[in-house]
Amino acid sequence: MCSDFLNEIKSHLQIHLVDIIQCFGITQDPNSKEYMMVIEYCNNGNLRNYLNKSENYIDYKFKIDKLQQIARGLLDIHNAEKVHKDFHSGNILFKYGPYISDLGMCQPANIKQTVKEEGICGVLPYMAPEVLRGQQYTKAADIYSFGIIMNEFLSEEIPFNDIPHNEFLAIKICKGLRPTISNDIPKLLADLIIKCWDAEMKNRPTTKELYQTLNGWSSGQNSEIYFQIEECDKIRKEKFKNRSNEDKSKSFKTHPQAIYTSRLLNFNSLPKPVNSSFQFSSDTNYTAQSTSVNPSKYSLYYYNYFS
Fold first, then answer.
1. Residue 114 falls within a domain, yes or no?
2. Which sign does the torsion angle of CA 232, 201, 67, 260 carry?
3. Which domain of life is it from (predicted)?
4. Is 87 inside any structural domain?
């Protein structure tokens, strides 16, 4: 058995918690002799499958609750002093609720590792810029990935789905390119996404802060969030009602060179990660002006808040 497979079994045994997919054991194919894990069946597939198959409007209250559960699972991993290292929407499985899966790359957070010559393993749109540059993977890198997942769940759009996932995209990410935050996402949620995918690791929230924030919103401890989601749900419901099947398929259609499975990536001399310039105010309406690969879709965030 390969080390990654053994590592995943070990991780499941060490982190057997409610928001982590359950592993029942291992089995062996009688013909190929390959070993396989027996894990809990999730009938709704991964997050992307779940959103694509959904025929009903998914409101923000529901999404906040599910994001809180995902954050709780990530907190459990980090409290066990491990990092996931391959955190993306393909590894969020849905049954009655969301479960974090694929712990094959999950490793102790205190182990210092040098990047192998052949590269780093992951899904490019979800990888923190410092990881793309070959720095050690940390809990903060998992938080960056959470920000991308959070925006994907709220916007129901796959990140960077219509452009190649190559070195050019990696350079743009290091220069501040992020998936566009839809203007019908509540401002409090948008602000949290921006904090999670900040280019500076120290500016990202800790997993505990992330969970406590989402848990507070989910349990009704913040009246402002309910005002915002009520207003944004009205806008989004109208869009959902008028959305055609063709519009929906565009959100989930991918470029032939957009790859959403983990693979080895090796980029040389990427620029130092930076944030774009932000301007904030207390208004709940916002828009993003774009200077990017595809101005209609992605933004180097220069936020202008307006009344």
1. yes
2. positive
3. Eukaryota
4. yes
pLDDT reported for residue 295: 36
Q: What are the phi and psi torsion angles at 274 (to 5°)?
A: -135, 155
Contact 40, 21 (CB under 8 A): yes
Q: Is-contact 189 273, C-beta < 8 A? A: no
- Rounded to an integer, what distance in angstroms lies between the CA atom of residue 304 and that of residue 307? 10
Within a domain: 11: yes
Per DSSP, 54 falls in state -
Give tens-digit pLDDT for 67-107: 999 999 999 999 988 899 999 999 999 988 999 987 755 55
The answer to whether the CB of 260 falls within 8 A of the CB of 164 is no
Given a cut of 60, is residue 307 above it in pLDDT? no
Question: 215 lies in which domain range?
Answer: 3-241+252-305
| Domain tally, the chain | 1
DSSP letters, 234-296, are HHHHHHHHH--HHHHHHHH---TT---S-EEE---SPPPP-PPP----S-S-EEEE--SSSTT
Q: How many CA atoms lie within 13 A of 68 on its CB side?
A: 15
The CATH number linked to 70 is 1.10.510.10
In this structure, are residues 66 and 37 in contact, taking their beta carbons and an 8 Å threshold?
A: no
β-strand partners of 178: 299
- pLDDT reported for residue 223: 85
Q: Give the Cα separation of 176 and 276 in Å (integer).
A: 6
pTM, 2 dp: 0.83
Cβ neighbors of 40 (< 8 A, separation 6 or more) are 21, 22, 23, 24, 95, 99
Residue 247 belongs to some domain of the structure: no
Q: Could you give the CA distance from residue 208 to residue 288 in angstroms, rounded to a whole number? A: 29
